[in-house]
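User: Fold this; tokens only.

Assistant: Input:
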Amino acid sequence: MSLIKKGAEANLYLESFEEVFHLPSKTMLVIKHRIPKKYRAPQLDLRLRENRTALEAKLLADAKIAGVATPVIYEVDKRGARIIMEFVEGSQIKTILDGLNEAEMKKLCETIGRNIARLHLAGIVHGDLTTSNMILAKDGQIFLVDFGLGEYNNSLEARGVDLHLLKRTLKSTHFRIADVAFRAILKGYEEEFGKGARDVIKRVEEIERRGRYVPREERWR
């Protein structure tokens, strides 16, 4: 089992289906393990990790039902705080977006916007919408991964924050194309979401204005 990502809350490991389930298969799996936090009381820590593991697995499953591509879940081990899921072969959107021509980039971003709208219509907010958490699979589907900060929330504010985070990611990571890319995302979002999309977009603008008028030294308190 090889470590592929070490995070603040969880580690990701790559392992073969055969090694995990002792059945012949060339399929590769990702094992997400929420790591214990020594600063928390052991019982509280276990309960938090169990609950968060179960919630993330449910969010992944419900997102798929809503029409968003997410990894297939093979096993959820609440007690061990582990999710065993499909390894999605493809490229992070983060690594390819800047290299696309404008037409390809807009088409991709519109698809991203439609996927986010499907999540929101299903009452799900991702919580960490960055281009690092989007994978363009070999079959052309865009997978959303890492719902570790996700939740069920239908509020305008939560939806606005979700999109605002993505806009900030584009500005910091893909600054050359950020404005065009985000407009394309909103176009896809509005087409898929339908009535009410303009209210969400207005909330994104409002959230951005709030940040603009808060003194820089106070923004991250």
